[in-house]
From TrEMBL:
Residues 1-28 form the signal peptide. Keywords: Signal. It comes from Streptomyces atratus. This is Peptidoglycan-binding protein. It comes from the Bacteria.
Length: 166
């Protein structure tokens, strides 16, 4: 049997990368704001306001708007949207109880709702983002260049934040 010489660092790196690709990689859980107040402070610092029909932030009440356990990328996405659009952004929904379930849900920290009562927001989304069809409930869908999805639900835009960009 012929003996081979030492492997180069480049070869070892290529083999390791191939093994990792074949084996798959575990995805880390998204970074979260554990407390509503921490996420709210970041939004406030960026000039983003929020409202709730119940005038509360309890994540166990449907009438509240809560940021408890929201993904940090979702908060960063709202801030990026405000900066890119120059619009007044009013959050009307976060992680509070009462939204549809699923992996990319409000409760899991991936979704936020922002008000459609701000013409600037509506104009920015419909002019700058690509029309992406209609959801089964009739909501018009738009996809941002960052691949986040904005669904017009009438009183608000339901945003699925896949990343921290607008």
């Amino acid at each position: 049997m012929k003996r081979m010489g030492p492997l180069s660092a480049r070869t070892v790196l290529a083999v390791t990368a191939s093994i990792l690709l074949l084996a798959g990689t575990a995805q880390a859980a998204p970074a979260k704001y554990a407390r509503h107040a921490d996420a709210a402070a970041e939004l406030k610092k960026a000039g983003i306001t929020w409202t709730s029909s119940g005038n509360c932030s309890d994540w166990n009440k449907k009438t509240c708007t809560s940021f408890t356990q929201i993904n940090k990328a979702s908060v960063a996405g709202l801030i990026a949207f405000k900066k890119a659009s120059g619009c007044n952004v009013i959050v009307t929904g976060g992680t509070e109880k009462g939204h549809a379930s699923g992996t990319y849900s409000h409760r899991n920290g991936y979704k936020t709702d922002i008000s459609t009562k701000v013409a600037c927001v509506n104009n920015y989304i419909t002019r700058k983002f690509a029309k992406a069809g209609t959801r089964s409930d009739g909501a018009a869908l738009y996809k941002s260049p960052a691949k986040n999805v904005y669904a017009n639900e009438g009183s608000h835009w339901d945003i699925t934040h896949y990343n921290s960009k607008a």
